[in-house]
Amino acid sequence: MGSRGFGMIEMLIGASVLSISLLAISYFFQITLRASTITKTAIQGDYLLEEGVEITKVFRDMSYKNNFQKMSTTTTYYFSWDGTKWATSTTNIYIDGVFERKFTLGDVSRDLNSDIASSGTYDPNAKLVTVTVSWAGPTGTTSHSIQTYITNIFNN
Questions:
Q1: β-strand partners of 123
Q2: Which of 12, 106, 109, 156 is spaced 20 to 30 A from 41 at the CA atom?
Q3: Is residue 156 part of a domain?
Q4: How many CB atoms are located within 10 Å of the residue 19 CB?
């Protein structure tokens, strides 16, 4: 009879160890799944950021004068796609209902050596473009930004 009680205790201890192990593995997979979702969203945001820079180059290539020289440096712009071409909008457009992508322009000044400087002569053929992508996540809102200079290289 004493060995029966000992066997029952062994089974309870074994079941407890197995249950704790399964809970730990389940928790690990849950954390891994959450981390991979956050990473996936960050990668999508970065691709949208890169695409935003490329879209500004499309605007430059189409017509620098009709696009960048007519845009205000105090306005926030959003990209819109009509199915055939890119355009700008001042109305926020969410991508996949998650991502907000916008861009702003800044004037460029040049010093006496024609280098970009914080002050100097205004250069109408160059703009500082800042593209920003933001999205809400489990830890709050995340924003990534990138800046580049766009110049009127085609004199159009």
A1: 108
A2: 106
A3: no
A4: 10
For residue 89, tell me if it sits in a domain: yes
Q: How far apart (Å, rounded) are the C-alpha atoms in residues 68 and 90?
A: 14
pLDDT tens-place string over residues 98-110: 999 999 999 999 9
**CB of 86 closer than 8 Å to CB of 55:** yes
Helix (H) or strand (E) holding 109: strand 99-110
Q: What is the pLDDT of residues 75-134, one digit of tens each?
A: 999 999 988 999 999 999 899 999 999 999 999 999 999 999 999 999 999 999 999 999
Provide the whole-model pTM.
0.77
Q: Which residue has the tokens 């029966």?
A: 4
Phi, psi of 75 (to 5 degrees): -110, 140
Provide the mean pLDDT of the chain.
Answer: 90
128 domain residue, yes or no = yes
Q: How far apart are the first and last CA of the chain?
A: 98
Q: Which of 125, 122, 100 is nearest to 111 (CA)?
A: 122
Residue 40's domain comprises 2-151
For the chain, what is the domain count?
Answer: 1
Paired tokens of 56? 């500004």
